[in-house]
Write a structure and sequence with these properties.
Elements: H1 2-24, E1 46-50, H2 62-71, E2 76-83, E3 89-91, H3 113-118, H4 176-182, E4 188-192, H5 196-217, H6 219-222, E5 223-227, H7 230-241, E6 248-249, H8 253-264, E7 277-280, E8 283-284, E9 287-288, H9 292-300, E10 304-307, H10 313-322, E11 326-329, H11 332-343
Parallel strand pairs: 1-2, 1-11, 2-4, 4-5, 5-6, 7-10, 10-11
Antiparallel strand pairs: 2-3, 8-9
Length: 344
C-alpha cells in the first residue's frame, strides 16, 4: 500500500516544486522598458481625465482637456473616437452624435465632419438616449451642466498662455489630431468605439494619423490604444507583431480574464500578451479586480493598472492606498486635491 502511494507523492511533490518555482521566477515583461502609465516613483498615481473630465466640462471636447491640463499639466488624457463619413477621426463617446448635440439619428459614420464644422454644431449637450450609443429618446435637448449643476461655456476654461477659446459659447467638434497637437507632451489613452468594417477603417485612419504626426509629436511613445471589441483588439496584436512593434495598447476582456485566472493560480508567468496597461473597473461580475495582489502581479509584468470611473473621494483614497497606477475620473480637480493632500 505504501509502495503504491509513492509515485503519487513523488508526482505531487514535483508539481508543487514546479509551481513554487514558477511563483518566484521573474515575470515576463509585457511592456519592455519604461512604462509611462505606471505610478510616479513616490507611488503617486496618475490623474487620468476621463473624456477630459465629464463632470467639469462636456466630455471629449478640446475645452474639457484644457481644463484638465489647468488642473495638472501632467494629466493623462483619456478619450473615445469614431470615424466620420468623410474619414475624419473625431472625439465622441458614442457611435452617434445624438446624446451630445442637437442632431437626431446622426450616426458618426454617416455624418460628414465638414457638416459639423460648417454648421458649428455644439457638443455642449447631455440628452437622454434609449440605449447605449443609441438615439435621442424624446427629442428634448438638455444643455450640459457640471457636477454643481451649473452651465458652462468655453470662456470658463483656464487656457494655457497664448491659447484663445475656439468659440465664445459653443463646444465645437474636436478631432484626434486636435488633441494630439494641442498637448504635445501628455500621454493619451484612445478608445476605439466602432467595430467591424467601420472599426477597421477607423483603426487604419488612426495608425495613418499617428505615423504622419510621429516625427513632431512622438505619437507612438505616448498614445495607448484601447477597445472593448475583439476584432479590433486582434488587429492591435497583428500590428504589434508585424508592421508596428512600437504600438502601445491595453487588452480586451478575454486577455484580462486570462491574466486574472493566472494571477489567482500564481501562474502569471505564462501570461505573455504585450499590453502596457489595464483600464478596468474595480469589480467585474464575480471578479474583484481591485486587490493589492492583482495590482502587484500586473506591475511585476510591467503592466500599469488604471481604474475607471472613480468620482468619489473615499474610493479614490482606497485605490491610492492599494497602489493603483492611475485613476480615471470625471472630476480631475477633486483627485488633484486629494493627491496634493497625501503627497505634498
Amino acid at each position: 500500500m505504501f509502495f503504491l502511494k509513492k509515485p503519487f507523492l513523488y508526482t505531487l511533490s514535483a508539481i508543487l516544486l514546479i509551481w513554487v518555482i514558477l511563483m518566484v521566477l521573474p515575470k515576463p515583461q509585457s511592456h519592455q522598458g519604461n512604462n509611462p502609465l505606471r505610478a510616479y516613483p513616490d507611488g503617486r498615481p496618475h490623474i487620468v481625465a476621463h473624456g477630459g473630465g465629464n463632470w467639469e466640462f462636456p466630455d471629449n471636447t478640446l475645452e474639457a482637456y484644457y481644463n484638465a491640463y489647468s488642473v495638472d499639466p501632467n494629466v493623462i488624457m483619456e478619450t473615445d473616437i469614431a470615424i466620420t463619413k468623410d474619414g475624419v477621426v473625431v472625439l465622441t463617446h458614442d457611435r452617434s452624435f445624438d446624446r451630445k448635440t442637437t442632431l437626431i439619428n446622426a450616426l458618426v459614420h454617416e455624418t460628414e465632419y465638414t457638416y459639423l464644422v460648417e454648421n458649428e454644431i455644439d457638443f455642449g449637450y447631455e440628452n437622454p438616449i434609449d440605449r447605449p450609443n443609441g438615439f435621442n429618446v424624446t427629442g428634448e435637448h438638455i444643455l450640459y451642466t457640471n457636477y454643481v449643476n451649473e452651465t458652462v461655456s468655453p470662456l470658463d476654461v483656464t487656457y494655457p498662455e497664448g491659447v484663445e477659446p475656439r468659440h465664445p459659447e459653443k463646444f465645437l467638434v474636436t478631432t484626434l489630431e486636435d488633441l494630439i497637437t494641442a498637448f504635445p507632451d501628455n500621454t493619451i489613452v484612445v478608445e476605439l468605439k466602432q467595430y467591424g468594417e467601420i472599426g477597421m477603417r477607423l483603426l487604419d485612419a488612426v495608425i495613418e494619423l499617428m505615423e504622419d504626426l510621429d516625427g513632431d509629436y512622438n505619437t507612438f511613445e505616448r498614445i495607448t490604444l484601447a477597445t472593448f471589441h475583439e476584432d479590433i483588439y486582434f488587429a492591435f496584436r497583428d500590428l504589434k507583431t508585424t508592421t508596428h512593434p512600437q504600438l502601445l495598447y491595453s487588452p480586451q476582456e478575454k486577455s484580462l480574464t486570462t491574466f486574472y485566472i493566472l494571477h489567482l493560480l500564481r501562474l502569471s508567468y505564462f501570461y505573455r500578451d504585450p499590453v502596457i496597461t489595464y483600464h478596468i473597473p474595480m469589480q467585474s461580475g464575480a471578479f474583484n479586480l481591485s486587490t493589492r495582489h492583482f495590482i502587484r502581479t500586473a506591475q511585476r509584468h510591467n503592466i500599469a493598472v488604471h481604474y475607471w470611473t472613480i468620482n468619489d473621494e473615499e474610493t479614490m483614497r482606497e485605490l491610492i492606498d492599494l497602489g493603483a497606477d492611475g485613476i480615471l475620473t470625471d472630476r480631475p480637480t477633486l483627485l488633484k486635491e486629494i493627491l496634493d493632500d497625501l503627497f505634498e
